[in-house]
Write a structure and sequence with these properties.
Elements lengths: L1 E3 L5 E4 L9 H11 L2 H5 L5 E3 L8 H6 L3 E3 L13 H24 L14 H19 L11 H11 L5 H7 L9 E3 L12 H8 L3 H13 L9 E3 L5 E7 L7 E8 L6 E6 L12 H11 L10 H12 L5 H12 L1
Parallel strand pairs: 3-4
Antiparallel strand pairs: 1-2, 5-6, 6-7, 7-8, 8-9
Helix pairs in contact: 9-10
Amino acid sequence: MSLILPNGYILDTIGPFWGTMNDASIAKNITDTCDILMKWCEKGDTMIVDHGFRDVIESFIDMGHEPRMPDFLTKGQKQHTVEQANRSRLITKVRWRIESYHARMKKWTLLSGRIENAFIPKVADCVRIVSAALNCYRGQIGQHAINSDDSMLAQYMRQQIGRNNILQARVDQGLLSSRSRWKKIEDSNFNFPQISLKDLRQLFFGTYQIKMGRSYVEEHMNSDGDYMIEVDNSNDNIVRASIHSRHSNASIYKAWIQFSLTEDPIEAWYCQCTAGARNVGCCSHVASIIWYLAYARHNNFTPSAGRQRLLQALTRQEPQTETDADTESSSEDE
């Protein structure tokens, strides 16, 4: 288990532990046996943890710390509330440094793959040596706020927490559900604001959603290279699309985006996925629509070579329609 400081420096690595132990049992073992942890951390310190630590949250509170963990869906709940989704996004925005450290560590050949059992007694020392080397020679993962835009970004994210999702309210009221009010964007005189990659990164609070959005666009483009998006007939500043979940093909989410041709082009968004109600950034489904309409289609976007080969293979395997079959039969009769 790794203890990471906010700037990405490694405070300590503890282990190894049995494969049957989860994060919670490991954390409980550490808090019970490592007195040095109490010396390093002061009361009131914030602990950023993931869902695996849910069973030891009370232990951290009893020690005087303030644990922060992404919210769970309760039984019967299909989507996080706006407050829950926003709070979870703030936590994951900070926690990415832990994943980045682990990615750095696994670039070392020794730790990148399977480790033989005979080497297990030496693993702990090797990991600590690697961690020390990363601290010394690779430097911090995140730049200091004084030397970057992180402070401004953090302030803006905190401002978004208190906002209500205006599109969610309209969807819940059934005001945007009628099929007859929507038409495909290629069938209408449609304008969508063009946004640079830099502005998209600011809108999405990072690059992850841009990468995921591109993947969703490639998966949902038809054989003609079009992304099936609809625009509201009665209100041409709202678009929507139906997007398959990457976790389950049986799950299809609808996403709505409200825009304007002003200096603040994206006014609101809402998606039916688990985290789709949040205002602090957006889900990948919403990001895919914005990225495609605002950037990709204006910059000669083409699917990756692998996706193009897949589309070609599927096109060749498409079954003949009855019309095609009748035409071939008529030709043979002649």
